[in-house]
Structures are given as C-alpha cells and as structure tokens.
Design a protein that fits this description.
Low-confidence stretches: 1-10
Mean pLDDT: 92
Distance between the termini: 32 Å
CATH class of the largest domain: Alpha Beta
Oligomer: single chain
Bound molecules: S-adenosylmethionine
Order of helices and strands: EEHHHHEHEHEEHHEHEEHEEEEHEE
CATH topology of the largest domain: Rossmann fold
Largest sheet: 8 strands, mixed
Structural class: alpha/beta
Number of helices: 11
Shape: globular
Number of domains: 2
Length: about 350
Amino acid sequence: MQKDNQTQRAFGPFVLSLEEIHPHLLNPNLKETDVVRLIHEMSTKFTVKRDQIADYVQDDDHVSAYASLYLPTNIPKLHFLLNKLPDEVLNDLSSRPFIDVGCGPGTFSLGWSLLFEKTPSEVIAVDTSRKMLEQTTKMLKGFFPDVKLRTESKYHQKNTDSVLFFGHSINEMGTYKAQDLIMSIDPEYVIWIEPGTSELFKELKKLRANVLEHYDVLYPCPNATACPSEWCHQVLRTGHELDVERLSQLASLDRKILPMAAHIYRKKRAQPLSNDATTIRYINETKFSFEYEVCYLENGVNTNAVIEIQKKQLSKAQEKAFKNADVGEKISFSVEKIVQNKLRVRLEEEK
Ligand SMILES: C[S@@+](CC[C@H](N)C(=O)[O-])C[C@H]1O[C@@H](n2cnc3c(N)ncnc32)[C@H](O)[C@@H]1O
C-alpha cells in the first residue's frame, strides 16, 4: 500500500496491490489465467450482454475475479472525489455511518476506511448478492478486523446521520430505486460514483434534479440550479501497482483513464452553497493555450462555456500540471475578454 506524496492532499491516494488483496479473496487460489478469462467474460456482460449482467455476482470465482481488478482500480476514483472537498466536510464525513449500496466486494467501504485511516462508526454494506456480501465481510475484516460491519440484502431504514453511497450500482438498480432509497433513508449526504457514459448521465441528471429538492450539491456543480449539460462527467488519469497493471493488460482493459460521473450532495442548509467552476471536458492544447469546457456560475445559474487559459500566465509547473490534468478539477477564474465565443480567462486562487 503506497501513499504518493506528490499528489497527497487531505490523504491518500492508496494504491492497493493484488498481493495485498489476494489473501482476502473468496477464492485466493484462483489462477491468473482464470481471473483473466472471467474478467473478459464479465466486461462483455457490462457492455454488450447486459441482460446477463447479474451472473458475475453469483459464485466465488467470479466475485474474486471482479475484486482482483475492479476493487484496486475503482478506489482511486473515491480519492479523486474526496479531494475536491474542503476539510470541514471531510471531517464531518469521516465520523458518520457509511451505507454502501451495491457494495460489491467492498470496494468503497474499504476505500473509505483506507482513505480516512479509520473505519466509519458503522459500515452498512448492502448488496442483493449474498456472495458479494460474503466477499465484503472477508475483505473489510481482513484489512480492519475491528470494523463495525452490518451486511444487508435490502436496507430502507431511516438513518438521517448517514452517508448514503452508490458505487456503480445506480447503473444496475436504476434511478427509481436509487431515489426511493434516498427518500426512505433520508441521509445527511448522498454520494455516487457511477460510469461516465452519456446514456447514464441522462438518467443521473433527472435524479439530480429530484435530489436537489432537499440537498445542496457539493461537487461537481457550481450550485443547485438546473444542469445545462448534455453529458457532464469526469475523467481521472491514474496509475496502479505493477501487478494490477499487468492484470489489466492481460484482460485488455484500460484502467488508467477512468471516466466517471461522481457527485456529492449534502442536506440543504440555511446558507445556499456556491462553488468555483469545474472543468467538464478537455478540448485542446495549442502552442499558446489550453482549452476546456467548464461549468460555472453566471448570474447565479450553472452555465457551460469554453474557456481559454493562456500559457503565458502559467508557471512551468502549472503548465505541466495542465498537460496531465484530470477532467473534473475545480478552478477559479475571472473573464478577461470573449474571443470567438470563448472566454479568455485569468486563473485565480481557489476560494
Ligand atoms: C458493478 S458492481 C459495483 C460494486 C462496487 N460498488 C464497485 O464499484 O466496485 C454493482 C453491484 O450492485 C449490486 N446491485 C445491483 N442491484 C442492486 C440492488 N437493487 N440493491 C443492492 N445491490 C444491487 C450488484 O449485486 C453488484 O454487486
């Protein structure tokens, strides 16, 4: 388990190796060739044969293969998202019960505990698959023997203090079920990290509009007004431990560039929130500038526009950072002028 000091802000990122996960798999004796074959099979079901999607959650081998690749490569998405939050919110999050809906092998319950360097007051792991719940228990207790863990195949109980988390599960259960859970559990926070596809975004946008009746948005939108975008998602560029990289190469799956739709909502407070702008699409790098589509506040409403950041205002280090930047970063800027429908901007210190 490594901490990369270069990118370490509030915490992490944690990079888990297969070697570390291995003893905690339901089937630790699965051969690499079998893991690769099963991952191939699963990824076809995730994309093409979606009617057979439930198959990967039903036996020790599939669950272990899923965990081998997706658990270590999904956790960095959580790190990316939590790093967008102010310390005050992080401190508040860390002490709350964590309800992990569609927990799978325990990916984000483990990620949450590793990133905060302690387990939440309670982890409630929810999954319709008994095998996944078995895997979550083995995985989480393997890393954190004292964790207060409850596993449930369904959970609708009111838990107003909690953080309700969906990790690639709204995509499977649908937004109606997700909304129903949000309404019955009535948590303080709702967080989702879902696939960054345009089809799912259309559904998530409707869910967002309903959630905003009772919640403020902490990320990615500048405020809780309507979403003007047709397809807003983030793109994390990351690396993994060598044995995980090897597995993703053998499975021919790129797990270094990770598109996702990641959102955080908090119960409405008296004072409405507004954030800086967020990059929502990388457009181009020219000799003189970087161009992004951003979502920012104009006259109090979320607005999309293309911005041009001229390189002459950037230090060498900032320029390098922009070359490798993720999509979904928060930035602050003032507009200097409008050139051919683009906003030429000056970057400012983030508030
Ligand atoms: C793609 S996996 C995601 C696992 C994990 N959260 C991750 O991101 O690595 C989706 C999980 O959602 C579970 N699931 C699907 N529909 C569900 C529902 N209605 N309630 C609870 N879990 C569900 C599946 O069994 C599966 O384990």
